[in-house]
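seq as requested:
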Amino acid sequence: MIIGIVGKSGSGKTYFSDLLNENDDFTVIHVDEIVHEILNQKNFQKAFIAKYGIGFMTKSEIDRKKLGHYLFSSNEVMNEYNQFIWPFIEKVIDNMIENSKKPIIIDWMQLPITKYFEMCDSKILVKASTNIRMERVGNRDRISDDYKNKRERFMLEYDESVFDEIVVNDGADLRDHADNIIRKILTIGFYAGSFDPFTNGHLEVIKKASRLFDQIIVGIGKNPDKIRHYNEEKMKEAIAYSLKREGIKAKVITYSGLTFEAAKRFHTTAFIRGLRDQTDYQYEEEIATFNEDHSGIDTIYLRAGKVGNISSTLVRDKIEKGEEIKDFVPEPVYQYIKK
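struct tokens:
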């Protein structure tokens, strides 16, 4: 999945890209940063000097401000430079897309006139009034009004009808907007529990959930009123390793406080709960109703099948009796408990 974020200078598109990636769910490609890195590369500078001469060079660097004044002199000059530098940019972007194991965000002002725009599954335009943008640019880049005005004249005008979402960044908090967008483009399941210890029953529920959701968050709740038998951080490591062995992509976290509050921070679209019997259902329905009333997040129930009878309590009882538990927990959890 590729999400394209577009906006004029000072619109806040990079800020919004980082807001979407607050939980490190994406590979974010900030093209402005890529361009700055390219300008410092020796192979690019060699090609640049061959085409434009040494007049833009200051010692071993390209004078970006001097280059900018030149580029903003005419559309022909700007278009020629774009054709020159874009193969260098595309090489980096193509490599990042090919090697990313996460959904991708491309943050690029010029995105609509590149080959990547049609590749985007979701296209987002971030906009702000000219006065707000110019003030932000002045504070950020510390450039003269003349230079700002020159740059402004060469910015793309966007056709708003081609975008899936339009974000107006007038200074208001954009977190709710980011949350709504993520919920539209990703399905994220939140599986909470004490996992004290994590069992094969829990693992089976996650296996089934991984076929239904783009992402799974496994949340180990920290309850100060409840005595734990196994350290949360150590169990977190054991769970993460267990899921990795199964080829399941999931994020394992620990959290304090109410479960629905933690779930909202991770843009959850549904809670995941396992069911064993009718008693389980009645208990789980009370929790599901509470969570939905307070967060708007619904709950889906999944069967653990043949291992559904395995609970953390059962495993602890067997340990207390000196009985073998190897068939009741994943191998990494078993090794941790043995230690």
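The domain at 187-338 is CATH 3.40.50.620 (Rossmann fold).
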